[in-house]
Fold this sequence. Notes:
By secondary structure, the chain is α+β, with helices and mostly antiparallel strands.
Amino acid sequence: MIKVEEKLYQNRYRVDADRPHIRIRNPELCNEQCDTHACTVCCPAGCWSFEDGKIGLITDGCLECGTCRVICDKFANVDWNYPRAGFGILFKFG
Ligand code: SF4
Ligand code: SF4
């Protein structure tokens, strides 16, 4: 049976350089007021990080699932959009 990681490896991603489709509205809020940093544990693509007291987001490889936007319900600090046409994830194996 094919593992999830192997399926994900089959996907292809086209980066829209300098135009990330997800942005953090106020990183200071993440760094200083959010006590869960839930986005860092819920993202299946590992786009979010919290290290040395700072939030990090790299949208390359984002699966466009929208979980980070939903999980940040307390602060609504995720500005989420689909990538422009022709960019983003190209799914294989459904
Ligand atoms: S859950 Fe929201 S407020 Fe908390 S670190 Fe993530 S984006 Fe920032
Ligand atoms: S939309 Fe999904 S895959 Fe993309 S950054 Fe948010 S949680 Fe991660």
